[in-house]
Q: What sequence folds into this?
């Protein structure tokens, strides 16, 4: 119990004394997760709408597959992206392995199923009445789609938050693609893994608390935005 | 429709089974915290299966860097440590956490790097090679060094070598991976960089690497593995038995004969124990001297 208390105290100390390395790692974690969720949402929210508004053979199978991929292990995504961008891989010449850019690619891939699937289900939950009303009021196809998406913005935002949380807290992609290089690709989760393996357990607890605090702040801010 | 009470019953039964199966085997298990090189090369698997066969004791192996193993020992979470960092080992025992240090195997650290060797270190001694890598790294953007940076035994030796080279490693050419030896070798390979590795992990990975050993067996690069029974252990008898097995003729022969691609990965400490820098207390006697 003592140790956990000390971890708490250490976390507050680290934040208060503005430890440059901790701040750097924290900012990097935040920026990489934010970039990943931005890229993944720019691709997947439109793609999700496309799947929702179109009926084609194999649609329900596709949705089933997307939902299954919610639980894809982060190390599997890491391995897949690693094979893609390592020196021997098809994208090897870009030199993306062990860079933050590679991590953003990996995390975007990782959270793609979550954002895609939850966008589709957010749209599905909008009442059909709304759609019918829009059409009966003379809305064209494009206006109808816009109305439905606007109505579903709350759940879509929740999907983005979940994607952000998964990107921020994952360690498989960050470790395999980023490589935990100090001052370049080290993020909160890989730093926690390292500090634990070095036996610095208080530091690990402190970094974990900082990570949860980021999630808390982001959730609170987004929650406020939604109320507006 | 299955009723709620049915679920509750099922949960209860599962809970009981868990309790019983956990309680039934807890006493006969020996927990060994080991450095990654002994584990990743599967030497420990070979030793463990022979030991389990002979004594009927379940051995649980927890693999991590030497820093992690020592911390687990301090907390009393394990019974025996197999580690490789003399200074911290002696500190650990002086602190009352460990009973004794016994040397059981050794090999060498290698400085490995790209085959074209841009810093020209081949054949130099270790600290000279480190100085040349640092010099070349400042001038040439293609020269890099990947450090473990994880306070493992290998990392401790690397820091020592920089010290004896009179260099504070820092800068664009010096990368800290913060990961195990295997992952660090793969990173060095991808980046065409130099790194310090233990010989056994390098050989286990050599098939997948384009890195070649450039500086090898010298006194500076000697790597000694030691076993330390943890004072706080509740299974000290088992820990001692495993230790004796490691030092027995049989154990030492398993270590000597364990190889990959026709080469030995570790050398038994028996017979050379004092030559590899262990003192009298750390290599006591008959057990060790039987194999020459």
A:
């Amino acid at each position: 119990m003592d140790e956990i208390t000390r971890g708490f105290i250490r976390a507050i100390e680290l934040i208060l004394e503005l430890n440059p390395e901790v701040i750097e790692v924290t900012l990097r974690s935040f920026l990489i997760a934010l970039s990943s969720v931005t890229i993944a949402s720019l691709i997947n929210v439109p793609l999700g709408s496309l799947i929702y508004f179109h009926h084609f053979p194999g649609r329900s199978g596709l949705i089933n597959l997307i939902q299954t991929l919610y639980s894809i292990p982060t190390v599997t995504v890491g391995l897949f992206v690693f094979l893609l961008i390592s020196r021997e891989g098809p994208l090897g010449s870009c030199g993306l392995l062990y860079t933050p850019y590679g991590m953003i690619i990996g995390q975007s891939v990782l959270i793609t199923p979550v954002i895609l699937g939850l966008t589709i289900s957010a749209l599905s939950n909008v009442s059909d009445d709304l759609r019918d009303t829009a059409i009966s009021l003379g809305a064209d196809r494009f206006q109808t789609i816009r109305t439905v998406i606007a109505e579903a913005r709350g759940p879509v935002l929740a999907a983005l938050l979940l994607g952000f949380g998964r990107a921020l807290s994952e360690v498989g992609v960050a470790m395999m693609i980023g490589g935990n290089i100090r001052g370049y690709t080290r993020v909160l989760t890989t730093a926690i893994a390292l500090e634990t393996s070095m036996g610095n357990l208080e530091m690990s607890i402190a970094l974990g608390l900082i990570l949860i605090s980021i999630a808390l702040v982001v959730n609170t801010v987004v929650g406020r935005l939604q109320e507006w | 429709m299955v009723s709620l009470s049915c679920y509750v019953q099922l949960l209860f039964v599962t809970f009981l089974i868990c309790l019983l199966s956990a309680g039934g085997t807890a006493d006969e298990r020996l927990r060994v915290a080991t450095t990654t090189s002994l584990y990743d090369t599967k030497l420990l698997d070979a030793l463990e299966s022979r030991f389990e066969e002979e004594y009927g004791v379940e051995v649980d192996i927890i693999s991590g860097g030497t820093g992690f193993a020592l911390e687990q020992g301090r907390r009393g979470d394990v019974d025996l440590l197999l580690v490789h960092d003399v200074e911290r080992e002696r500190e650990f025992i002086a602190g009352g956490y460990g009973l004794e240090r016994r040397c059981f195997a050794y090999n060498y650290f290698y400085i490995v790097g790209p085959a074209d060797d841009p810093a020209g270190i081949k054949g130099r001694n270790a600290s000279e090679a480190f100085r040349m890598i640092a010099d070349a790294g400042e001038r040439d953007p293609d020269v890099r060094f990947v450090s473990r940076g994880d306070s493992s035994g290998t990392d401790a030796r690397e820091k020592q070598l920089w010290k004896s080279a009179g260099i504070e490693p820092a800068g664009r050419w010096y990368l800290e991976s913060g990961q195990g030896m295997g992952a660090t070798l793969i990173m060095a390979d991808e980046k065409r960089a130099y790194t310090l590795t233990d010989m056994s992990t390098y050989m286990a990975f050599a098939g997948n690497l384009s890195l070649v050993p450039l500086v090898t067996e010298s006194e500076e690069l000697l790597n000694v593995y030691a076993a330390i029974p943890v004072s706080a252990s509740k299974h000290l008898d088992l820990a001692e038995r495993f230790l004796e097995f490691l030092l027995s003729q049989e154990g030492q022969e398993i270590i000597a004969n364990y190889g990959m691609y026709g080469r030995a990965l570790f050398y038994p400490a028996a017979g050379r124990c004092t030559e590899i820098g262990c003192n009298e207390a750390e290599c006591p006697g008959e057990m060790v001297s039987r194999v020459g």
Residues 21-227 of chain A form a domain with the MetI-like fold fold (CATH 1.10.3720.10). Chain A has a mean pLDDT of 91.
